[in-house]
Design brief:
The protein has two domains: 203 residues, Distorted Sandwich (Acetylcholine Binding Protein, Chain: A), CATH 2.70.170; 193 residues, no CATH class. Helix content is 46%, strand content 21%. The protein is an alpha+beta fold. It is found in: Synaptic cell membrane.
Length: 440
């Protein structure tokens, strides 16, 4: 038993010694290899192929969309940049170095492509905000993986805000080497989204990568660039609940301004409160919508139309109050007003029967009282009193006619207002492509 334990311990010690010797040998091989590679190597000299061009493959892996700023029209992204190229000077025979086929070196020790973000919004356009080592294999294939945060320019079209889709672009290229010296091409036709974290406001619909040649203003030569396009779709729930639904509710709540009794003192104050509520919503909206004169956003059009409609509703309410409080000693209600309001409008708002009953009762009572008083005046010689009573009855009839007209106008304006706010909502929001396609 003791012998077996002894041999077991001896075996463990032998393995440990072998691993230690192997690690030392590998480390020694790496040191020797690096010295061998760097002996006559200059990082200032660009590697090239047979036609004198250095080809660099570019791949982008999106980690997260950090921020899309409408006001500044910028896109901030966290991503991995993967660069692949070949440098024959960094190749070796692995059999000469104990089978070592891969090493890593600091990027300041070898040549790296002078590539950066060309449409940056601010800061340096150089790639690599987080320092990572360069990987090299025995065939001279070089791979550099860099994690970086870019803040790039993104032209944002807010015409259909908040039901809008945006396409942002990342342009990667070199300002030092022209296309004959350095060619940059995408490794894949799209960006890698396997490590992508879902954004709370924007949905990433898709990506694409395209190689293009461009000319800069300072040179007549063409330069190789890669354009990555990110198709984004705004999620609308936040804007629906905080901007659109409150606006619709406030617009609908304006209807009671036209339905309250004309003698109510709260009509105008209620309407002013509604207008103040719109003012608060507009101030909140201004913080979200970028200040631009190129286009006018759809939601701003809706707000403008709605606030005009609410203001007109207040004006309609004022007109109705003028009808209701018409002084009885003024001229009678014009015939054309009777035809339009007491006939046509009354039929439209289904108040024609009520108008007929009120008119019959009003005129019948008035003329009955006048006839009685006229008979008494002839028998008693009270002509002056009869005339006075007759005039008062005429004034009462005129006043009731104006009040009936006020009630009809009140109801008619309420229906017209409700119809216009619904029509405005349908015309404005259903004009957006996403609404037509049913992809809210």
């Amino acid at each position: 038993m003791a012998v077996s334990k002894f041999f077991g311990l001896l075996s463990v010690m032998a393995v440990a010694i072998w691993l230690d010797n192997f690690a030392v040998k590998v480390e020694s091989s790496q040191t020797i290899l690096l010295q061998h590679l760097m002996k006559n190597y200059s990082k200032e000299i660009r590697p090239w192929n047979n036609n004198g061009t250095t080809e660099v493959e570019l791949d982008v892996a999106i980690i997260k969309l950090i921020l899309v700023e409408e006001k500044t029209e910028t896109l901030t992204t966290n991503m991995w940049i993967r660069l692949y190229w070949k440098d024959e000077r960094l190749s070796w025979n692995k059999t000469d170095f104990n089978g070592l086929n891969r090493i890593t070196v600091r990027p300041d020790k070898v040549w790296i492509p002078d590539i950066g973000l060309l449409n940056r919004a601010e800061g340096s356009d150089k790639i690599g905000s987080i320092e990572t080592r360069v990987q090299v294999d025995d065939q001279g294939n070089v791979k550099w993986l860099i994690q970086t945060i870019y803040r790039s320019s993104c032209s944002i079209d807010i015409t259909y805000f908040p039901f809008d889709d945006q396409t942002c672009e990342l342009v990667v290229g070199s300002r030092t080497y022209n296309e004959k010296q350095l060619r940059i091409k995408p490794k894949n036709a799209y960006a890698d989204v396997n490590v992508y974290t879902v954004h709370g406001e924007w949905t990433l619909l898709g990506t694409s990568a395209l190689e293009q040649s461009v000319k800069y203003s300072y040179s007549n030569e063409e330069y190789s660039t890669v354009h990555y396009h990110f198709d984004l779709r705004r999620q609308t729930l936040y804007y629906m609940m905080n901007f659109i639904v409150p606006c619709v509710l406030i617009a609908v709540l304006t209807v009671p301004v036209l339905l309250l009794p004309p003698e109510s003192q709260e009509r105008q104050s209620y309407g002013v409160t509604v207008l103040l509520s719109f003012t608060i919503l507009i101030m909140m909206l201004q913080e979200k919508v970028p200040a631009t004169s190129k286009v006018y956003p759809m939601i701003a059009v809706y707000y403008a139309c709605t606030i005009v409609q609410v203001s007109l509703a207040m004006g309609m309410s004022t007109v109705m109050l003028c009808f209701y409080h018409k002084r009885p000693f003024t001229t009678p209600i014009p015939k054309w007003v009777k035809v339009i309001i007491l006939n046509w409008c009354a039929k439209l708002v289904r108040m024609h029967d009520s108008v007929d009953k009120i008119k019959t009762k009003l005129y019948g009572t008035a003329w009955k009282q006048v006839a009685i008083r006229k008979t008494r005046s002839e028998t008693c010689g009270m002509k002056a009193i009869t005339e006075y009573v007759f005039n008062k009855q005429e004034e009462s009839i005129r006043q009731e006619e104006w009040r009936i007209a006020a009630y009809i106008v009140n109801r008619f304006f309420a229906w017209v207002y409700l119809f216009t706010i619904l029509l405005t909502f349908v015309i404005v929001f259903f004009n957006a492509p996403r609404t037509k396609a049913g992809t809210l």
